[in-house]
Amino acid sequence: MTDRGRASFFLLLLLAAIGTAFADSANQGYAIKSLNAPNPIFVPNGDGIAIAVSARTSAAIERASVRLNGHDVTSVFSLSEPGTMTGTVFGLQPGINTFELLKTNKDKQPAAILKIAKAKAPAVACSAASFPSAALPVPNTVITSVTAVAATPTLAAHCLINGTINAGRIGQETSPGAPVSRYTYGIIWQARLPNEWNSKFYMPGGGGTDGSVPGTTARLNQGYAEAANNSGHNNAVNSDPLAGGTASFGTDYLARVDFAYNAIDVTTRTAKRLIDLYYDTTPAYSYFEGCSMGGREAMMVTQRFPAHFNGVVSGDPAFRITKVGVWAAYEGKQLAALARSRDLISGFGVPFANNTFTNQDLQLISNAVLTACDHLDGLVDGMVNNSQACTTPVVAPVLNGLRCSGDKTAACLAGDQITAILNIYGSGAPNSQGVPQYAPWMWDAGIAGCTSPVDCNTPTAANINGGWRAWNIGGFNASFIPHVSNTPNGALNFASLGGGAIPLLFATPPILPAPTANDGLASLIMNYDFDTLAASIFGTSASFPVSDTALLNVDATDLSPFKASGGKLLIWQPQSGGPFSPQDMVNWYTEMNSAVRGGEDNFKAARSFARLFLLPGVNHCGGGPGTSAIDPFSPVVNWVENGIAPASLLGTAPAATPARAPARRLGLDGRLLAGPCHVRARGAPSRPALGGQRGRQRGRQLRVPRRYERRRGAGRLSPGPQAPRGACAAASCYRSSPCR
Length: 740
Ligand SMILES: [Ca+2]
Fold this sequence. Notes:
By secondary structure, this protein is of the alpha/beta class. Helix 4 links the parallel strand 16 and strand 17.
């Protein structure tokens, strides 16, 4: 395959990060595949489905036996190609159907399983009478509307149910002198129950500080019953401009509790009861999926409500969000100092962080990261797959090499810019005692990165990835005039979204007043005592008996109850870094593995029920200059229902991302090393540049990239057939040539 071919439209990149098992190894190549279209695992009409079964050889598959719900259906299959038999099986029953592939008809244990949902119809009418209040599990639940929604060209027919829980609750005073002293709160929820149901329940998570009901149609056409909630406050109502705007619900303890976990619990229990009433059966499988704050909610359900959901997808989760707030304040102070030194002061008198770095400056940093680290994964492709080797000591010399010898130009970085970015990425937000209050960041090219193949090759590139910028410093404002422009800071981390949450929600007691006008939130963050702020996230009071850190952060490491209930968790973690440190996630995953493991290394214990995938060059919740398009949900369904753990995630580069550009040589040689994985050193040569923080602490453990090879006949990359242990710890893995 040519380089150009490898970098062509479907650039197939293995995004597996922390070790996985080769999916086929357990069943010796036996597999069942649905040929149903458009949805392979859901049959809305009829009772037949086309199925393919395969094994390594034709002889092996011809000896095999196929069962549907325990009945032998082997006779409908015939050899269609070497190693594969296909056939159309009839007799699907409403609900979940189980296909089993047995190596011979004498076998007891199937070599492969495939669950197929045939649509189940409602047992009662879509009307208020079908959902009596007395039958609902949560007190103070009110169903406000029940509507039968006819099918449209884009949406399946369903029963739409809206309701509230604890509506009209009068909250605590938001702030002295506020326009409204007390607001009302309530959980608003919505459920959609399809006419053709796949016997499953799906709940999407929220985003930001929530405050509205997320869309409930994402998987309706796939047959899922869906429900979601607004987390207990309403942005259209609960917004005090003197108390952080829409973060003002943080002044009310019960609103904090609802936001942290309670609203999801009561909505889940309510929705499952509605499903039971409507279809006369409970869901066979339940799934939760979310990113950002929704990703936090996903991790939350695995820890607080381990039996609520069978499969959970968590994207870029805000899992230690109160500590993120502290870090964001640290970052704001770094940028404020940089802005002051350059006289970047707005008409409000507030340091203006947006213009502390131009897009070109960030592109210089991105290129420096690539110079330092791109090759460390064995492949120069514009992406940093071996994030654990790309440490600050590796990157800093290259960054320092960009220091301007004279005046600042577009081709160099000022010394204080380099200092600020090194502090932001490498320090973990130390307090005045030098103690880190959060985690270091991952160096990743996605801090900028060109988003146009043409611009990638021009020194004055204009189309720069703005994902990191939007969260951390805000968009560059070319028309900004110091001391004149009344332009507020734009960084989501410390100026707006975080700027409200840091004083109102994370701090106990809330820091008041926290005005939103005149760039007040950014000014508050930039000027507040950092040590005091860092301590405030652990604070309690008479009105707030539990700190917001204890309420909101979901970094428990003992996930045994979720594991014991058969739950499966998939976390996908972009590396480009918007609001949350990807390294913090790697650290937590390492700690969690230690907590659940039985003394075995290589993440064996964690991997059995929770898998973490790192995505280089991908922004917060998607986009960016890397192969950003992924489907993390289907692999979880396959894991939960068929027992096939995801060995990899498939990442493709959407149109107009430079990953498609041959000039970037992405996909070069067909093998991308996707670190980190853990192997025990076992006498392998010590490599000080590797190992990351924890690896060095443990001494005997190295973080190294495992190797991958192209699966025959497909562009998809998968772990090589040999276990990485030992072999991948060899020094040969780190040469610029691919590791074999
Ligand atoms: Ca690379």
